[in-house]
Records
---
Amino acid sequence: MSKILLVEDDALLLEVMRNILEIEGYEIHPASNGKKALDLFVNIIPDLIISDIMMPVMDGYELLESVRVLPNGVTVPFLFLSARTERADVSRARLLGVDDYLFKPFDAPELINAVRSRLDRRRRVELFDTRAAHLQTVIMLANVIEARDPYTAGHLERVRRLALNLAFALDWANEEIVILEFGAILHDIGKIIVPSRVLKKTGPLDEDEWKLMRQHPEAGAKMLEGVDHLKAAIPYVLCHHEWWNGSGYPMGLSGEKIPREGRLLAIVDAFDAMTTNRPYHISMMAKDAIEEIRQNKGIYFDPEIVDVFIRSYKT
Ligand SMILES: [Fe+2]
């Protein structure tokens, strides 16, 4: 339940607002001036503050200034609800970092909408921050694994960018894009089981070495199985070496039986492999790699995704 610090010196108005917001399911902490509100703030850490401006002891401006210097107060949504309608008041409040400014007399829907939209925005920002921090951790882990293979430096970052561009061009939903980023970063994480001598080998791999190499999608998928928020990225990890004609690995799936996450990643992974130096070949020009992908459309790669990739690829 979201906690709202409600600051108003008019006891009757405070009660009215309290009722309106409690019916909406918010937990209300009332204060009759800025000073009392500040004491309460430190103890309850509210999710949002609604404050009057003109109050005894400490006014709304002073409260806003004091809250904004506190570690938990920098980002807390702060709404003024005031009878002061002068432009100068509003701009002073804005300069101090107020998030919204409502005028008295207010009506209930206006107040409720303002509170809802601010709380919703705060939740989104928090979610985004958590995801960004999480992605950074995953990138660090994947980079450690990638660093064992000196020939693929920067591969993950390029694959992430290419995959994102392609998913945007395909109009994938936002939720899918979020998972795609994790999938692209983690797709080769299973290579941790492949010894460095195999990864660094310049000549062709022998049968045993190939066998090991071909285990990396399943090994990676297993690593993610126990991690709740990464499970959704498994199709990228498991199926990025499945080919459209069924000749890929680990399961030899064909056509649309291959999850589309795998079909998308197979194209950008192959494109990046072709355009960078590897132990077994020297890099191709982007236009030649695109031609190679075009020629393998319907053989290794999903024909529809290839068309979109070629159309949307930016040099
Ligand atoms: Fe791979």
---
Amino acid sequence: MSELHPWVAAAATGVLPDWAVARKKRRAHMARVAELLREWGEARGDHRRDVERWCAVGYLHDVLRDADPDDLRAELSSPWDQLPDEVIHGPAAADRLRRGGVRDEPLLTAVACHTLGSPDFDDIGKALYVADFLEPGRQLQPKWRARLREEMPERLDTVAKAVVGKRIQFLIKKGRPVPLETLGLWNRLAKGRLWASASEV
Ligand SMILES: [Fe+2]
Ligand SMILES: [Fe+2]
């Protein structure tokens, strides 16, 4: 098993890379997400290294959240540079981590796609997606959030499905488009097959 990258190991103790752009309130959110992830990793009985990865991703996901989106866009190549302002900080953080030598693909996907979700999520990606949405600092629907937190970490897929379903319902209610990545995560988690492939019709 390879050593954790120094940025990942440091983030597991709450220390951010020196290129972080996150204000105080944001850091408090990141700490709450990281704390949930550490708790869940430990409750799963995961290896210490994995518990550290889970905790680290809680800190690293929003490490560039308060940077100017246009500055982040300028660093990214297509198609990532097309993303809207509120989404771009994830891919930008993953790109910085990768350029700095982080090679942990499930962790990088978790960071890159934490806002929209992704059908390519490993457990660490699903857990971050869920923790980011359910952390106790979020004011909206606290009872619903608390109930879902109680189901973690045992029912990761069920809880992730509830969260992504809620997000899709919200977007539909507002008449807004649902990103393909979000629908992709839903389809990964939903029961049953999508439909017969063309060759089977
Ligand atoms: Fe974020
Ligand atoms: Fe976040």
